[in-house]
């Protein structure tokens, strides 16, 4: 198993690079972006530093890669955070200077399309952090969710083990960014039922790997994922986006991972609560519940076929739903199927 490097953590007062490695949405919704920046300053004590493409609406893949490489190379920068996700970050990866990044490891925060960079850093042996983009949890209407804020603060500043907790509430209906009046209004939330544990009742420990399932599928198709044996004893993280893939597509991706000889190597599988609403698919509560149940059944089916000894946990607060807890990709995790506790090392 390759040794993973935990980059040095920033401290309050440090400079943090804010990049747009995917979509240039800070140019489209500057007020939302500025709200996230202000919270980084006021609540976390960090100094955001923008690069040439951070507010560019249509920067090329090469230009975005240059900013990523420059942010890692800059000795005055202590951490790197994505503004938002998108859908084409996979085109950026081949333009990166891996020697520079490997020689200057820094904590990187992002999720969704940033699964590309998380996987790339994993391949370079650098622990990176799934979650924490500027325009999502940081720019949440009203205030950051307390669980999101505490998790991000711990991941940013506090080394050592951190126990994840199941949130008492959750949401997947974000405010409309086009409506400035909603900046001060929290998004709608619903009671949460907690995590669902399945599979063997045992304790497993290993490095985390994964992210947004749709992006993982693209990376697998492009041959940009490590060989199956690299994942022996790892803990797989899965969550899905506002694209709301069908249960069949979720199953097909996991089935392909199984046939690749990959899925069965994971000791545990952690699954985020599926986002089941978007502005173009405004599902009712009943439709949301049905969608989530179908996705769980699809994942359960694939895990039973290819990884029957894996501990399986559903409905974590990660990724595209609110609140959002941070996971260290490549970092250590403990999944206790007996006591039903999950800890990660930040």
Automatic annotation (TrEMBL):
Occurrences of domain LD-carboxypeptidase C-terminal (ranges): 206-335
InterPro entries, sorted: Carboxypeptidase_A_C_sf, Class_I_gatase-like, LdcA_N, Peptidase_S66_N, Peptidase_S66C, S66_fam
LD-carboxypeptidase N-terminal domain sequence ranges: 16-131
Keyword set, alphabetical order: Hydrolase
Recorded GO MF terms: hydrolase activity
Entries under PANTHER family matching the protein: LD-CARBOXYPEPTIDASE C-TERMINAL DOMAIN-CONTAINING PROTEIN, MURAMOYLTETRAPEPTIDE CARBOXYPEPTIDASE
Organism, scientific name: Catellatospora citrea
Membrane-traversing stretches: none
Stretches assigned to coiled coil: none
Homology family: Belongs to the peptidase S66 family.
Domain of life: Bacteria
Protein name: LD-carboxypeptidase
């Amino acid at each position: 198993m390759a040794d993973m490097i935990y980059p040095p953590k920033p401290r309050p007062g440090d400079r943090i690079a804010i990049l747009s490695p995917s979509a240039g949405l800070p140019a489209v919704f500057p007020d939302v972006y500025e709200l996230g920046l202000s919270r980084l300053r006021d609540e976390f004590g960090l100094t955001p530093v923008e690069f040439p493409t951070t507010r560019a609406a249509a920067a090329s893949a090469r230009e975005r890669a240059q900013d990523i490489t420059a942010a890692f190379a800059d000795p005055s920068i202590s951490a790197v955070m994505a503004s938002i996700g998108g859908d084409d970050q996979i085109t950026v990866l081949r333009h990166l200077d891996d020697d520079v990044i490997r020689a200057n490891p820094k904590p990187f925060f992002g999720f969704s399309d940033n699964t590309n960079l998380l996987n790339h850093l994993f391949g370079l042996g650098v622990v990176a952090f799934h979650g924490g983009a500027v325009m999502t949890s940081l720019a949440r209407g009203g205030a950051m969710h307390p669980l999101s804020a505490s998790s991000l603060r711990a991941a940013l500043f506090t080394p050592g083990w951190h126990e994840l907790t199941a949130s008492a509430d959750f949401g997947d209906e974000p405010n409309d960014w086009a409506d400035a009046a909603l900046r001060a209004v929290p998004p709608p939330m619903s009671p949460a039922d907690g995590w669902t544990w399945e599979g063997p009742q045992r304790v497993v420990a290993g490095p985390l790997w994964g992210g947004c399932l749709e992006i993982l599928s693209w990376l697998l198709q492009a041959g940009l994922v490590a060989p199956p044996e690299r994942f022996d004893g790892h803990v797989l993280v899965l969550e899905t986006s506002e694209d709301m893939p069908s249960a069949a597509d979720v199953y097909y991706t996991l089935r392909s991972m199984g046939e690749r000889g990959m899925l069965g190597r994971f000791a545990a599988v952690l699954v985020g609560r599926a986002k089941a609403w978007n502005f173009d698919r405004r599902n009712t509560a009943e439709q949301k519940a049905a969608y989530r149940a179908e996705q769980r059944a699809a994942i359960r089916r694939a895990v039973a076929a290819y990884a029957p000894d894996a501990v399986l946990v559903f409905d974590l607060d990660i990724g595209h739903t609110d609140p959002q807890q941070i996971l260290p990709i490549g970092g250590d995790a403990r999944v206790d199927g007996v006591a039903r506790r999950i800890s990660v090392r930040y």
